[in-house]
Design a protein that fits this description.
heterodimer, A: mainly alpha, 8 helices, B: 17-stranded mixed β-sheet, eight-stranded antiparallel β-sheet, about 25% helix
Chain lengths: ~170, ~675
């Protein structure tokens, strides 16, 4: 039962934790590695979890510690956000958890509405993990224009989600 | 969002931000909450997009593998073992061996059948209840000797197959204390070790196109091909690092796909299925389920139906987490949380359906009931037939829980068969969840009209009830169509509430909504409010729309000034078919009027909300203990009986129930 309880809690908040570690690492592969470390620590410490408290706050607290450890390891090798900024981001993640979950529920629909070219670039970038230069080469376009397509696609997604959220709140 | 921030976030998340850009972003994040919000939402969107594409990629890989398997089989049948490749020859050889074993199996099957027949005749001769027993034995005999009907643990499983997963289960660590409940039919959950992504075979896409349309094969859990993609987000393979050694297919016996025991259909909203091996994926239409499959329905909305070949059905509602298993005897389902409606076909006497939760076990031979699992208790409501209901800790059983009865199992809760809810009840909220953002509809009707707390920080769960401490709204996910239609059919309604206002003076702008079925402040079907917009707030006021009122339900009716206090109060509004409307306060009629016309002009698109209008511009603060809506006008006697029953009457016998015997079982 413990395993399943843990799984149900963890899977429910996995998206939130993933977003938080992505903010810290700003690299999807590093974020996945770090998320796996966080998941392992959460499971190891699950016995200490007080069921009377929200799992999200507890999990974010653990993730915050792991992110700070990761930061210490990486601080020398590359530029990373400061501890103060990462702490503030953890609080923001907790505050925005519900809104982010609601937004995720609209994402798939909005993805389907993307223009064909933007959708293709998104797939190459997010699904196949191609570098922007590789995408540019394949599409016979400049790197800057591919970057612009991605920026616009992200913005279009965000605006689509905003519209749907507003419509939902009015209905 | 400023252009600069937008550019910084885009570059930061794309990994192209230089040191200077990161420093500037860091500065903004430390000083500006809006910047933090923008970055977090952008990162969350990025992560979610990756997840969606990863699931899509996983599905395509699974399809490609399936097509490959079908293609191999058809090639083997066409070419034959002599001309086939070495791998195919080995498989054929194994099939031959299995074929030789089948002869022996057939012998033992025949012998078992003869013994079973002799035993059944003996029982028939010895026991006068021959007809009944004969029927049971006839039902069981084929399954008892069916070669495929063994415990699932006897079936071969692939040894640690690679998982083409996009989500990982955490690593299982040895933990002190008693071991978790043993489950032989499911391997332990494992935290997938990170593995490098492997390139897809170039011929996969054309093969996928050759997949026959008629194939609805089991894809999960199945032996995953060695060429299948591994974790979608494993660590990067660094330059110079040796690639993972290829596994030799011949090293493992060909795994046998487990038999499916049910289908998943009628899925709506976010529904995921986790296979016994740990692969989690979105549910597919008519997905086959095998023992150990874990089904999760999204908490934001969603539903699914599990259908067994014998017609047994489970309708899983939002937030459900359930595992189906099939041990040697009967069908099993573990409900971790959420609510389901069970419609169980008649089961063999010695192979009952068993549903297990953290608090209770339900043994079923064929019936309909609703089961709800909350953090602290399990609640069962019997709609037809009877079940055996067992509380696990401390163990106690109600041997026969019958139609019209309900029971709770949980710590510090008395186990007893209780009567179900009164006639005409269309929505009931008891506020006994003790946590979370959902207030469950306890009416037992479907679809359940659960309420969602928009801002969890604005409320506090009390030991008994829900205190709204700052403005928010508690509202149904969609229109309260079921309630509205029921009232339109009868042209009657009762709204009953046990509430304790936070004070006589409420937050402005008023009047605060204790309950409303409305679109906004200008269009409503009904609203129970505290006071007036401009003026006193020490009375209750009701507006109900009829064909003789305006769209706001004016003219309103109100109790006398001073009838509202800051104490726990039972307030009831009834409107009968003939137009008589009454507001009762603590069992006494405090306002009466005639609201002629009918309810045919009620909109069916309005939601049911508590503590505010949907736009959150009419907040009400106070404690909710119980709220009920009936599609009939309760009589004065029933209102008084409910008042005497108290705010916790959801577990007592309410007025309006008749002819249901108490059967307490053995606590």
């Amino acid at each position: 039962m413990d395993q399943r309880r843990f799984l149900s809690f963890f899977l429910e908040h996995q998206g939130l934790l993933k977003a938080y570690v992505l903010v810290a690492t700003h690299n999807p592969s590093d974020a996945d590695d770090l998320l796996q470390e966080v998941a392992g620590v959460l499971w190891e410490k699950f016995e200490q979890y007080d069921a009377g408290r929200p799992f999200r706050a507890w999990a974010l607290g653990v993730a915050r510690m792991e992110v700070l450890k990761w930061r210490q390891r990486r601080a020398r090798s590359r530029e990373v956000l400061s501890e103060e900024a990462l702490e503030a981001m953890a609080d923001t993640a907790d505050e925005l958890a519900e809104e982010a979950a609601a937004r995720r529920s609209h994402l798939r629909t909005c993805l389907e509405k993307l223009a064909e070219r933007a959708s293709a670039v998104m797939r190459m970038r997010y699904r196949d993990s191609h570098a922007i230069a590789a995408i540019a080469e394949r599409m016979k376009q400049s790197v800057a224009s591919v970057e612009m397509i991605l920026v616009r696609a992200r913005r279009a997604l965000r605006e689509c989600i905003d519209r749907r959220m507003v419509r939902e709140s009015r209905s | 969002m400023s252009e600069e921030l937008q550019d910084l976030i885009a570059r930061y998340l794309a990994g192209t931000a230089d040191d200077e850009a990161v420093r500037r972003l860091d500065e903004l994040l430390r000083s500006d909450p809006a910047a933090r919000r923008e970055l977090f939402l952008a990162a969350d969107q990025d992560a979610a997009v990756r997840d969606i594409f990863a699931v899509e990629a996983h599905r395509e890989e699974a399809d490609a593998h399936e097509a490959e398997t079908v293609s191999e089989r058809s090639e083997m049948d066409r070419v034959g073992p002599a001309r086939s490749s070495r791998g195919i020859g080995r498989r054929v050889e194994r099939r031959r061996r299995r074929g030789a074993g089948t002869v022996w199996s057939a012998f033992w099957i025949a012998a078992a059948a003869v013994v079973a027949a002799v035993l059944s005749v003996t029982f028939l001769l010895m026991d006068g209840r021959g007809a009944q027993h004969g029927q049971e034995l006839t039902q069981q005999q084929p399954s008892a000797v069916h070669p495929g009907d063994g415990p699932p643990r006897t079936r071969a499983r692939p040894a640690a197959p690679p998982r083409p997963t996009v989500m990982h289960r955490p690593r299982r660590q040895p933990r002190p204390g008693p071991a978790p409940e043993a489950r032989n039919d499911r391997p332990p959950l494992e935290y997938s070790p990170p593995r490098p992504r492997r390139p897809r075979a170039p011929q996969e896409a054309p093969e996928a196109e050759t997949r026959p349309q008629t194939t609805v094969a089991v894809r999960e859990p199945k032996p995953v091909p060695q060429s299948a993609p591994l974790v979608a987000h494993g660590p990067k393979q660094t330059e110079g690092e040796a690639p993972a050694p290829e596994r030799q297919p011949a090293a493992h016996p060909k795994p046998v796909a487990p038999e499916y025991i049910a289908h998943l259909n009628k899925t709506a909203g976010p529904v995921t299925v986790t296979a016994p091996g740990g692969v989690m994926a979105a549910a597919r239409a008519m997905q086959r389920l095998v023992s150990g499959h874990l089904i999760e329905i999204g908490k934001e909305g969603g539903s699914a139906r599990i259908t067994y070949p014998d017609g047994t059905r489970f309708d899983l509602e939002q937030g459900c987490l359930a595992t189906i298993t099939q041990p040697a005897r009967g069908k099993h389902l573990v409900l971790e949380r959420g609510r389901l409606l069970a419609d169980v076909a008649r089961q063999p006497l010695y192979k009952p359906m068993i549903i297990r939760t953290a608090h209770a076990e339900v043994t079923v031979l064929g019936t309909r009931f609703r089961l709800t699992v909350e953090a602290r208790f399990t609640h069962i409501e019997m709609l037809e037939g009877e079940v055996r209901f067992t509380r696990l800790k401390p163990r106690a059983t109600i041997r026969r829980l019958r139609a019209g009865q309900q029971a709770y199992a949980g710590a510090r809760m008395r186990l007893a068969a209780q009567h179900m809810l009164p006639r005409g009840l269309v929505a009931l909220y008891l506020f006994d969840e003790a946590g979370g953002r959902t207030v469950r509809d306890r009416s037992g009707l479907s679809p359940a009209l659960d309420l969602h707390i928009r801002d969890a920080s604005a409320v506090r769960w009390e030991r008994r009830g829900l205190a709204v401490r700052s403005p928010t709204v508690i509202v149904t996910g969609g229109p309260a169509t079921r309630v509205i239609r029921a009232c339109k059919r009868t042209n009657e309604i009762t709204v009953e509430a046990w509430v304790q206002p936070a004070g006589i003076a409420q937050a402005r702008p008023g009047p605060g909504r204790i309950l409303t079925i409305s679109r906004d402040t200008t269009q409503r079907n009904i609203a129970l409010r505290q006071g007036k917009a401009s003026g006193d707030t020490d009375f209750y006021e009701v507006r109900v729309r009829t064909t003789r009122t305006d769209l706001r339900g004016r003219p309103s009716m109100a109790t006398p000034r001073g009838s509202l206090t800051a104490r726990l109060t039972h307030v009831v509004f009834t409107r009968a078919r003939d137009g008589r409307a009454v507001i009762y306060v603590n069992g006494t009629a405090r306002a009466q009027a005639v609201r002629s016309g009918d309810l045919s002009n009620w909109s069916e698109r309005f939601r049911l909300g508590l503590a505010n209008e949907l736009a959150e511009d009419r907040p009400w603060l106070g404690l909710y203990r119980r709220v009920a809506v009936y599609s009939r006008a309760l009589t004065a006697r029933e209102v008084q009986a409910n008042y005497r029953a108290g705010a916790d009457s959801g577990r007592k016998r309410p007025a309006g129930t008749r002819g249901i015997r108490r059967d307490g079982g053995k606590p």
